[in-house]
Amino acid sequence: MIELHRVSKVYSVGPVKVPALSDVSLRVNKGEFVVLTGASGAGKTTLLRLLYRDDLPSDGDVEVFGHDLGALKHRDVAALRRSIGVVFQDAKLLPVRTVYENVAFVLRVLGTPKREITQRVFDALRVVGLSSRAQAYPAQLSQGEAQRASLARAIVRKPPLLLADEPTGNLDEAMEDEILGTLRDIWAGGTTVVLATHQTYLAQALRRRTLTLQSGRLVKDEG
Amino acid sequence: MLGFLIGEALRDLRRAGRVAVSAIVLITLSLAALGGFWLLSANLERAVARWRERVRIIVYLKREPAPAEAKALVEQVQAVPGVAGVLYIGKAEALASLRQLLGKDASVVAQLPANPLPASLEVTPAAAAATPEGARALVERLSTLPEADEVAGSGDWVERLSQWQRLLTTIGLGIGIVLAAAAFLTVTTATTLILHARREETEIMRLVGATEATIWLPLLLQGTMQGLIGAVLALAALVATHSLVAPRLEPLVSITLGLPDLAFLPPVNVLALVLTGALLGGMGGWLVRPGREP
Q1: Of B206, B176, B195, B178, nearest to B286 (Cα)?
Q2: CA-nearest residue of chain B to A111?
Q3: Residues of A with CB under 8 A from a CB of B
Q4: Which of A93, B71, B201, B239 is surrounded by the most beta carbons within 10 Å?
Q5: In this structure, are B166 and B269 located in the same domain?
Q6: Are B155 and B130 in contact (CB under 8 A)?
Q7: Co-location of B43 and B91 in the same domain
Q8: Are the Cβ atoms of A82 and B209 closer than 8 angstroms?
Q9: Å from B211 to nearest chain A CA?
């Protein structure tokens, strides 16, 4: 499903070149739950951004669903992203829309028929345990609830791949468990999950395949 | 999908708030100015067209010809290039016309020892000769007739009226363009504000795989809406002003320009105003659309 072949990414900050990923090769199969771990600045976010074609590698090839992302045309990027759900550390909910509207927004943007939207939104909210908060605005949610709303938005299209970038970074332990539980449920439903986290103990708790990045290099692939 | 796009465009309009209102007001003003001058110009054009049809050149004859000579002369003048029609007016007919013109003072004519009026030919120029240059050339040609004593009349004043009409159109276009430029800039400002306010939505839309068209169409639509609202308001203002002012001006216009009424803009101009408004707003929205990703 995901294949990186000798991928490097270098950011240019004026005349200074900052390497973010160096010679990373890896493969993630369909249905896997992979934890991508490493300290802040290790290259986790950069790697995820390459996977949903938010950026292009400086060197090497990235393949997702069999598509070489470097050769993808603009209109095909949109099609690729429709198959990928993304969750961030900050939930990135739209503040003037309710939880329901935030989740429905994705379906409306993609032209889903109106009659399907309500059913699918409530299905997604049920998976993350947030049905009772559908009419709440983001400002009225706890951080854990906001993150779960963000998860609902990511899975409402039932994407085969979910990328979660530090989804528990701002949460306390109880809320972390909630989110990890939800991610497990989503994975159990057949979705391939790539979770990036700097919290190494989460990787241990999840007992899933763990990829460790250090200064942009893949130094460990275990589990 | 269309419902979503229109809904987002309306939401964007509300977000732009006062700036969108300013843009609508400026579009209204620019189109009302353009439409107002157009309305005046269209009526002047009507007057010019009517008066062009009435341009006549009079060839006063040295002596009154015999009926057979008069017929031959009419045929000869009819063959002159630029002549559409010729009417022979004998001395007696000319005097009768004078009597009719004088009305109750016609008795003055009876006191004349002899008919002082010359026989004449009333020449109607062809459309091509109804311009100042054409009329002058025709006058020159008719002056060469051996029977002609004097040739009078040209369409100079009609042309001056026509020049006024063109001047009005140009002024209207000038004012319209200046105001339209201001309106256009305000639409782009409103759209920039909207773009800033919806940057999170744009980010999410891109993230979930929305096409670029889905991202910028609401911006284009909200700009077009601003333009359409401005155009409708401008038309409403023009209709209201026309219905209030026209009845008061029509007697004056009838005397001075010979127009029975002051007509409103023809449908094609109304359509042009609406389309100009939509285009103005749409372009403002289109130009500020978010750039594409790498």
Answers
A1: B195
A2: B1
A3: 52, 54-56, 74-75, 77-84, 86, 92, 94-95, 105-106, 108-111, 114, 153, 157
A4: A93
A5: yes
A6: yes
A7: no
A8: yes
A9: 6
Of B3, B210, B292, the CB nearest to A110: B210
Q: Which of B2, B10, B207 is the best mutation test for A, with the most CBs of A within 10 A?
A: B207
* End-to-end Cα separation, chain A, in angstroms: 18
Q: Is the pLDDT of residue B155 over 70?
A: no
**Assigned architecture for domain A2-222:** 3-Layer(aba) Sandwich (3.40)
Mutate to test the interface with B, among A80, A84, A92, A109 (most CBs of B within 10 A): A109
- Residue B30 belongs to domain spanning: 2-51+158-287
More confident residue, B287 or A105: A105
Binding-site residues on chain B for chain A (CB distance < 8 A): 1, 3-4, 200-201, 203-212, 214, 292-294
Q: Are B163 and B193 in a shared domain?
A: yes
Asked whether residue B292 is domain-assigned, the answer is no
Q: What is the pLDDT of residue B156?
A: 64
Hey, are the CB atoms on A82 and B214 less than 8 Å from each other?
no
Helix (H) or strand (E) holding A133: none
In a domain, B20, yes or no: yes
Domain boundary among B119, B154, B189: B154
Gyration radius from chain A CA atoms? 17
Q: Are residues B167 and B281 in the same domain?
A: yes
Considering only the beta carbons, identify the residue of B204, B207, B292 that sits closest to A74.
Answer: B292
User: What phi and psi, each to the nearest 5 degrees, are found at residue B98?
Assistant: -65, -40
Q: Pairing state of beta strands B57-61 and A209-214?
A: unpaired
Strands (E), A1-134: 2-13, 16-28, 33-37, 59-64, 67-68, 84-87
Domain total in chain B: 2
From A110's Cα to the closest Cα of chain B, the distance in A is 6
Are both B172 and B31 inside the same structural domain?
yes
Instruction: Report the complex ipTM.
Output: 0.83
- Select from B102, B132, B154 the last residue of a domain: B154
CATH of the domain at B145: 3.30.70.3040
Place of tokens 């989110």: A179
Look at A79 and B209 and tell me if their CB atoms are within 8 Å. yes
Q: What is the tens place of the pLDDT at every residue in B101-143? A: 888 887 887 788 888 889 999 998 887 776 767 778 888 888 8
DSSP secondary structure letters along A86-98: EE-SS----TTS-
- Whether residue B293 lies inside any domain: the answer is no
Residues paired with residue A67 on neighbouring β-strands, in sequence order:
A64
On whether both B163 and B44 belong to a single domain, the answer is yes
